[in-house]
Amino acid sequence: MKKHTSGIHHITAIVGHPQENIDFYAGVLGLRLVKQTINFDDPGTYHLYFGEENGKPGTIITFFPWADAYKGRIGDGQVGVTTYVVPVGAMNYWKERLTKFNINFNEAVRYGETYVQFDDPHGLHLEIVEHASGEENNWTFGNITKEVAIKGFGGAILYSSRPEETAATLVDVMGLEIVGQEGDYTRFKSTADIGNIIDLKMTTGVRGRMGVGTVHHIAWRADDNQDHLEWQQYAMDHGQHVTEIKDRNYFNSIYFRESGEILFEVATDPPGFGHDETPETLGSELKLPIQYEHLRERLKQSLIPIDVRPLD
């Protein structure tokens, strides 16, 4: 039986100073810091999660912030652009807000839709598009109201070193549907109402280099643990070299690098971010997996202090 992911679960990127990261994604974009924890593979580094009020799948962007790390290069083998979706009629607000914070932007049109494109402080390429689909984000921060707040992901633009093979993986493995072709881009769509549009650039360019200002991986949704096990076997049956299941505390994960060199993850929707904090306190304190709890005091001393603060 053919499997279909419902859409993007989260996108994870590498950035620089964690306070600059928080100031931009919370202070400027108005997203909620729903979890502050550590990189399970490098516990001396934060892993910060931002999204809508509850951090539901399809809204979460996550970061490994290394203050002194080397600069990366966006290119083939990476997510090139992360797309956010806002309510219809909100675009003028966002152009005014970006101008207010001296963030340069330009406008581009794909598939008849206007995108406002800009970079975050560490060089990640972002864009905003208006869509009617998707629930309102009730999280408000600074001067951002729910009528204009970012709902979550619209999707992403993928840069592949082998676009035709990546296209085949998106269709044959992930179960996305081709819904259009325009210029250099083929458009794919999944079934979710958010995080459901992938534009794959069908021409190649410079090879990406991992570092600050680049996306580390894109994660796709699995319904639950049983569905996740099926995804692991399904991807292996389709020739992917899939990792063992990893417990990330807020979801389980498997990984494989598809033929175009983009790192794919499949992550479970449950248990989510609320099992170790209340809805009111999400993201308010450092949360550690049990295997690192005995290092709490040492880690708190080594991690850079951070603060979620309004910038308006």
From TrEMBL:
Coiled coil regions, renumbered to chain: none
SUPFAM superfamilies: Glyoxalase/Bleomycin resistance protein/Dihydroxybiphenyl dioxygenase (SSF54593)
InterPro entries: Extradiol_RC_dioxygenase, Glyas_Bleomycin-R_OHBP_Dase, Glyas_Fos-R_dOase_dom, VOC_core
Pfam families: Glyoxalase
Domain VOC: 7-131, 152-269
Record protein name field: Glyoxalase family protein
Organism: Ureibacillus xyleni
